[in-house]
Amino acid sequence: MKEEVSIGKKIALFIIGIFIILGMLIVSEFPSVLLTLFQPIFNKKQNGVSFILFMCWLIVLVGVIWFIWRYYKKKSHDIDTSVTGKDIWRAFKIFLLGRVIAIVGTGLMQQFYGTDSSANDEAIAALFSQDESIYYVLIMTITIAIKAPILEELIFRGLPTTLLFKKTPVWVPMIITSLVFSSVHLSSNIISFGMYASLGALMYWAYSSRGRIIDSMLVHFMNNILGAIALLLTYLFGLSI
Question: Which domain of life is it from (predicted)?
Fold first, then answer.
């Protein structure tokens, strides 16, 4: 009887954990919802009003990051957010491995599907249209370079590991979270899906090997920052993508 109660409690905690993660996912989308509301105003070129809305968006983003990260640290006890030169070098080496995965994936897509970019990359590039205002583009740059590395690592790796997979072999959450991570990135073919899943697994390893979410955030940041800067420069100088 005690065993049945124990199993029932584990199932209940697992279900509660899923709902908490889904709730945090909804909270993480508040800045995106706000951006959707602000976009028509941004495009009217009202610089004074647009600047105020831009600052409001930043405040909301910081608040959302603080809320989710605080909850994660409370539940996981992963409180070491220090970053040293060795940490950056370690993250850079993992990032380079991720670049190899991306290059191989891109080559395979070119070979089999005649395209060198995923649907996700094409959708992101479209957001940097010359028709958009500078404030909208700055928000998209921050979203790619900062918001995604922090919140995606917390929601797709940190929280699931803490709430759902604390006592399971590391390969279980690595596979499950990587597949979920890939599923939320637009994929037009199986190769791009596998590429995002592989990158997700790599970032999960960066996190789980030392139990520090800041490690996978660093890798994710390095993976995103160059593309974000390239898209911003493309917008600023009116270059063709």
Answer: Bacteria
Inside any domain, residue 241: no
- Radius of gyration from C-alpha coordinates of the chain: 19
Instruction: Dig out the tokens for 74 from the structure.
Output: 């409370």
127 against 196, higher pLDDT: 196
How far is 237 from 241, CA to CA, in rounded Å?
11
| Look-up of token digits 């970019």 | 117
30 alpha carbon, distance to own chain's centre: 15
**169: Cβ–Cβ under 8 A, 6 or more apart, which residues?**
none
Structure pTM? 0.91
- Domain assignment present for residue 224? The answer is yes
Q: Domain of 131? A: 2-236
Question: How far apart, in whole angstroms, are the C-alpha atoms of residue 64 and residue 94?
Answer: 28
Give the total number of structural domains in the chain.
1
Name the residue among 76, 78, 65, 67 with its Cα closest to residue 214: 78
Would you give the DSSP letter of residue 155? I
| pLDDT (0 to 100) of residue 46 | 66
Q: Torsion over CA of 165, 166, 168 and 172, rounded to 10 degrees?
A: 40
User: Crossing angle of helices 2-28/47-76, nearest 10°?
Assistant: 160
Q: What is the mean pLDDT of the chain?
A: 91
> Are 76 and 162 a contacting pair, CB within 8 Å?
yes
- Residues 6 or more apart from 223 whose CB is under 8 A from it? 95, 98, 149, 199
Contact (CB, 8 A) for 95 and 222: yes
How far is the CA of 56 from the CAs of 28, 96, 141, in angstroms?
16, 36, 16
Q: pLDDT tens across 71-82, in order? A: 999 999 898 999
